[in-house]
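ARCHIVE CARD
SHELF: 3
SLOT: left
DATA:
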Amino acid sequence: RVRLVRRHRADADHADRQAPPTAALTALSPHLAAMNLYLLSETLFTLVLAAFALALGAWCRRPGAGTALAAGALLGLATLVRPTTLYFIVLLAPLLAWWAPSRRAVTLIAVLAGFLVCYGPWFVLSHGAPLPEGHTSLALKSINSGTYPDLMVDGRPETRGAQHRYAPGFDDRDTLGEVLAHLLERAREAPLTYLRWYALGKAVTYLGWDIIAGAGDVFVYPVEYPGFAAHAWLGSSHGLMMDLHWPLMCLALAGCAIAWLPARGVLSRPPAAVRLTRVLTLLIAYFILVHVVGSPLPRYAIPLRPLLYGLACWFLYAAGIALARRVRPPASVSG
């Protein structure tokens, strides 16, 4: 019991050090503020994804069937809002079961049950339903759009983010085979361009600042009253977050890179913090990979901002501890 109390206190202390800066960055994010103006899936998805992260945190602190069920259910709700989340359950369920050695079967069943209760009915109703004539699936449209480097047709800036309007034969490619054939044909003509685009360019575009397909900056659709320009303090917060955007994204990716290193030395953290950090890095890597395959519009990454800010703050926290230990090493005890 004493060990359990100490572990919970360590988890709480670890979270308390990073929560205020993460919450401040989330509150200052102009993308998250502007997204509340629209009836778009990103608005609801941000809420459900944050609730999913909270449920994961609760399970990591105290693994049990109830918290596993809640995490699975919220992932199912997230998949209803954004279907790209569908395959993350294949990674999440075995991972949580592996981390609960004494209750692996219960954990696995609970996560899958929660997910299927929420997502299963929709899958049954929609499975095999024919698309309306002249329509293609959203996944195929996304993959098709992503085959254009920098989201432009032949490098023309006016086509950026609107490839479907300018690309010849875009709507004629209504099967995956036709899309892949088009991609291979274009890649043979400019192999280095497509290598850069798929190896790095898509991930950079996905995590970018400008909304690209929309009104520009942080706005998807035009607004009559852009508060960021009308109020000095709102404009200052907008400018601050724009200046901090890429440093924060790089810090978050650095946090993802070191999260899976052995948890010792400067990376030694309470077990719950280790598990939660690793699941969130896995989730972020999953979304980046999905949009490397499909269309990497930055708008789709907005719901990840709170998680990315949290990982950036965690990396700074770990780096600060490492620096403090180098500057002031612990005193040795003689005798």
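SLOT: right
DATA:
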Amino acid sequence: MNADVSVGAAVRGFAFACCLVPAAALAGEPGFVGVVLYDNAAEGVARDVFAPDTAKIVLEADLQDVPTGARLSGVWIATSTQVAPPDYEIDRTTLQAGLLSNHVKFALNRPDAGWPSGQYRVELWIDDRLVETVPFTIAK
């Protein structure tokens, strides 16, 4: 599988300047907000059901109270399909949050034979803590 990932200071195409706040001054628990799954960057239409011929599935989210240096991971998992064992890890991408990181994007390309029908999920981790699970389905 080929996974794409990005993290940066752009929010929906607009760059901005921000005041730097020490990690100790962060107010809340680190997390992801505005999580969306989609299959076409041009449309950006959120969905949770995809066709087997979907070329790429993309997950985007904003970061909330994530300190600089935190490890951000997106783990793509086949929860239940007829071709892989239960909870099979397809791919994992880990990156480090930067000073002005406030957005993350993970993407996974279609397998050569197409996506097997079934249940999937993307796990979002910050350091060694599972923060969010985003389920989706591949169906004809």
